[in-house]
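so my prof wants the structure for this chain in the tokens format not the other one, which i didnt know existed until like an hour ago. anyway here's the sequence
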Amino acid sequence: AIAVINGGSTTPNIKGTIKFYQKQNCALVVADVWWLPHTETGFFGFHIHEGSDCHGIDFSNSKSHYNPYDRPHPEHAGDLPPLMLCKNRAYLSVLTDRFNVSDIIGRTVIFHNMPDDFTLQPSGNSGEKIACGVIKKVM
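here's what i got, hopefully its the right format
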């Protein structure tokens, strides 16, 4: 599966791809994102959200974190490690058993302007949604 990432109204230059591969009982998530803004920390929140599109003011249709098992944050199935900025770019590869790729087709991927603190409920104080993409099945 793949999500093509585009920035929002305050960060229109953000572009990228998130690829999802099913590997036996785990999903491999590979993020490659360009033109992230410089921030104080250089880290960005990265989550799968429940919504099925990126419309609405500040991607409001993406809804909240993907959390099919009703767990507290940071145990949501959609909670992922933060992205780290390197000269306007971020790359991350992570293996997770919190979801199967087939479970997230049609959901959204969101980047936030602050890192996830993995503590505060419900979303780790990760700030504004700055980029979004819909996860689509690759034929």
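also thought this was worth mentioning. The chain is about 5% helix and 40% strand.
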